[in-house]
Amino acid sequence: MNKRKTGQEQEVKAACFLKTQRYQILERNYRCKKGEIDLIAREGQYLVFVEVKYRSTNESGLPEEAVDLRKQRQISRVAAWYLTDKGLDIYTPCRFDVVAIEGEEIRLYRDAFFLPGLKEEIWETETSANMEKRIESLSKKMKYRKQTASIRK
C-alpha cells in the first residue's frame, strides 16, 4: 500500500475517533498555497487544526515526534490562511491538536503546541492577499493602457 493511501486511511480513522470525542469535522485535507492541514474541526468554542501522524511501529520514533517546530510553523501559516480565507475574526479561539496513530493505538494531544504570533501571521496573510489583488489590478490597468496607447498611434 502506498504512503498517500495509508495516510488518507489514517486520517479517516482519526476523524472517526475525533467524532467520538465530540469534535465536529469541518474540513479534511485543507490545502492552500501555504501548505495543508489534515483536519479542521470545531470542539466547543475552539476551531481546532489537527495534524494526524501515523507509524505502523515505533522503530522510526513515535508519530507525535514528527510534529517538530518546522511542521508547527507550517501548520500555523496554513491556519492563518484558513482564518483569512473564511473571513474569520483574528480573535477566533483556535487550538492545535495532534492525533498520533501507532498501529491500532490512537493518542490525542489537545493543545499540542502553541505558536505566538498567529494574529501577526493572519495580518501578514491578509496583507499578502491584498497585495496580490493590487498587483493583479495594476497589471490589468497597465495592459489596458498599453492597448489604448497602441490604438491611438
Structural features, described:
The chain has 153 residues and is α+β, with helices and mostly antiparallel strands. Helix content is 46%, strand content 30%. It has three helices and five strands. Strands 1-2-3-4-5 form a five-stranded mixed β-sheet. Strand 4 and strand 5 (105-113) form a beta hairpin. Helix 2 crosses helix 3 (118-152). The longest helix has 35 residues, at 118-152. The termini are far apart.
- Strand element count: 5
Which term fits the overall shape?
A: globular
What order do the helices and strands follow? Answer: HEEEHEEH
- List low-confidence stretches: none
Quaternary state reads single chain
Spatial gap, N to C terminus: 64 Å
How helical, in percent, are the residues? 40-55%
Alpha carbon gyration radius: 20 Å
Q: Biggest sheet, in brief?
A: 5 strands, mixed
Number of helices: 3
Look at the helices and sheets and give the structural class. alpha+beta
Mean pLDDT: 81
What order do the strands of the largest sheet run in, or round the barrel if closed?
A: 1-2-3-4-5
- Strand fraction equals 25-35%
